[in-house]
Amino acid sequence: MAGDGVAKFDPKAHVEATKAEWLRKQRVFREMYYSKSKLPPMTIEPFPFERERLPFKMTAEDRALRHQWIQDQVLSKNEPRYIPELHPKNFFRRIYGAPWDYVTKYVTASMGIEKARLFRFMAPKAAMFIAGLCFINDYMKHNESSWEQAKGFNTYSNKLPIYNGEIPENPSRDYREKSGGDFYNRGFTSRTTHKL
């Protein structure tokens, strides 16, 4: 029976393995909850839970302390304040944001702080989006697929319908009747060089 290859269950080893796993989970939880600090996070709010504020547990001094804490949470007119030193930016973001900060500083007087913040947030993104659209449009316009190169964009659009053979005035597309070699020639028949 002992040599059949089945391992015996060892309760002590099982308890030790379970304990080690539990200690590991506790350590990971403590690192996450303490934010990699040796001490747990601390709150300075007096009596944060309602059960701690029951009348028979709080004294007059405790009530005054709690009242002062609540009054301290009310922000004044000039709060919250933006302190640039608390929001550091790297060298490239400072260069990219310098023109927008300059414009925002002069726009704030006429628009107000909230609208100026919205402008500062949206204007660079809108400018980059419009510049990207212009770049894509220009690239597709000047890099159209042709018979001379294997790269480029193929753009297609629908033609206006023709009724009774009447071609519309100032057509944007070629409406002439095509022969067998005209389909997908990518500008080969309209070339100006290498003609026989």
Automatic annotation (TrEMBL):
<dbReference type="GO" id="GO:0005739">
    <property type="term" value="C:mitochondrion"/>
</dbReference>
<dbReference type="GO" id="GO:0006120">
    <property type="term" value="P:mitochondrial electron transport, NADH to ubiquinone"/>
</dbReference>
<dbReference type="InterPro" id="IPR019174">
    <property type="entry name" value="NADH_DH_b-subcmplx_su6"/>
</dbReference>
<protein>
    <submittedName>
        <fullName>Uncharacterized protein</fullName>
    </submittedName>
</protein>
<dbReference type="Pfam" id="PF09782">
    <property type="entry name" value="NDUF_B6"/>
</dbReference>
